[in-house]
Structure formats: structure tokens, C-alpha cells
Amino acid sequence: MKIAIMGAMVEEIEPLLEKMREVKSFELADNIYYEARYKGIDTVIAYSKIGKVYASLTASLMIERFKAQKLLFSGVAGAINDELKIGDLIVAKKLCQHDLDITAFGHPYGYVPEGKVYVESDKELLFLAKEVAKEKKIELKDGIIATGDQFIADPKRKEWIRETFNADALEMEGAAVAVVCDALDVPFFILRAISDAADMDAGFDFDTFLKSSSRRSADFIISMLDKMA
Ligand code: ADE
Q1: What's residue 213's pLDDT?
Q2: Which of 54, 81, 162, 172 for mutating ligand 1's site (highest number of atoms within 8 Å of CB)?
Q3: Furthest-apart CA pair in the chain: how many Å?
Q4: CA angle 128-90-183, nearest 5°?
Q5: Atom 4 (ligand 1) nearest CA
Q6: Whole-structure pTM over 0.90, yes or no?
Q7: FRET pair for 69, CA 20 to 30 Å: which of 128, 133, 190, 207?
Q8: Closest ligand 1 atom to 77 CA
Q9: Which pLDDT value is given to residue 89?
Q10: pLDDT tens for residues 156-201?
Q11: What is the position in ligand 1's atom list of the atom closest to the CA of 172?
Q12: How many CB atoms are closer than 10 A to CB 148?
């Protein structure tokens, strides 16, 4: 069993690489992929760079070239749901693309023909995460994550995403990874720790909390690997 663990930014995967043994790096498609072992589990780890296109490329290569059989994503997100505070963990039950728009042809937001508005996460990985959270007494929320190629720092746009997709958090890669994994039949899990509230202060908060929230998310992923090992 090989498990892919990906982030979008170097800060999101650094805390994971620190815990790995037998790390080997490979250059591929303008990026670096790390093959490593953790407590007997084979992993491939990479950060994709920001956005849906890079995330799709990385997820596809982890599956097709590195033969990953499950994919875990770790990183940060902007909160939409007011109950989510900086540092809180949220796992996606399902994901959508908030910037996908062919409504001019009568389709709903987030939909293209032969696609679906929401892609659902793997139920077994969700169950495993809940067990880990219970055992470690860590609060883990679940909900809908909306993805788009935009850093949201605008209360109006945030409100529109909440109303249109009933989303709890937003980021820039999750739904792209979900679409790739769904198409290739690979179970996936998208975990995010909140770095900001996608409001006027989002840019400042993101810079301030990127590292600490990335670490919270990565630590939880490590606890999931501990449980799998
Ligand atoms: N990831 C973390 N915060 C975000 C925001 N406000 N917009 C988009 N992606 C994010």
C-alpha cells in the first residue's frame, strides 16, 4: 500500500517530511516528489504549488507514476462557517468548484456536463479520521469545502460561496484533487486547518497563521498514519 500525501505549499508538507525516514527525492514535471517511509508505510509526498491546475497535475502523477493507492491532502483554508476559528481542523465530506461557471447555458454553478457539482470523500478515511480525533481528543469538524483559483479576501464573495454551495471552508486545490481521485478510483481525504476567515484581514491572517495551521493539519495526518501502521 502506497499513500500519497500532498499539500499546495512547502509550509504544508515540511512538518510531514520531518517525520519521514528513508526519504528519496525525484524531479518530475517541474516539481520534486519525495518517496519516504513512515512506520512501515510507503508514502509519496509533494507540494503541488497553488491552484487547481497544479493540484490536478500533482495528484495525477502521484497516482499514475508513483502508484499511490490512497491520497491524503494536508493544508490550510479560509473559514466560511462562523463556527470555524483559526487553527480549527475541518475535513471535507464533499467538495465543489466555486469558480466553475457555465450558467450561461442553464447549468448550475460548479457544474459541467458529465461532471458533478460535489465530489464525495472516501467514507473509510473519514471514519478513520473520526476515530483518531476521538482517541486523541482533538476537535475535528466536517463539512463542505469549496475550491477555486482565487484567494478570497472579500466578505461578499465569501457570502456568495456560502449561499451557493452551502460551503463551510474554502481553499484553492481540494476539489481538483477530488475530481482526479474520483476519476481514477483512488480513495481521498482532504484535511484543512483554518488560517483566516476569507475576509478583509485574510491576507494578513494567512501570512501570520500559515505555518502554525499547516503544522496542526500535518500533525493530524501523522496521527492517521500512526493508526494505519
Ligand atoms: N486558503 C487559505 N485561506 C484562503 C483564502 N482566504 N482563499 C483561498 N484559499 C485559501
Answers
A1: 98
A2: 172
A3: 52
A4: 70
A5: 78
A6: yes
A7: 133
A8: 2
A9: 98
A10: 999 999 999 999 999 999 999 999 999 999 999 999 999 999 999 9
A11: 9
A12: 23
C-alpha span between 156 and 117 (Å, rounded): 21
The larger pLDDT score, comparing residue 205 to residue 21, is at 205
Residue 20's pLDDT is 96
pLDDT digits (tens, 9 = 90+) for 18-70: 999 899 999 999 999 999 999 999 999 999 999 999 999 999 999 999 999 99
At residue 172, the 3 state secondary structure works out as coil
Phi, psi of 212 (to 5 degrees): -65, -40
Check which CATH number belongs to the domain holding 198 and give it.
Answer: 3.40.50.1580
List active site positions.
12, 196
**How far does the centroid of ligand 1 lie from the alpha carbon of residue 59, in Å?**
20
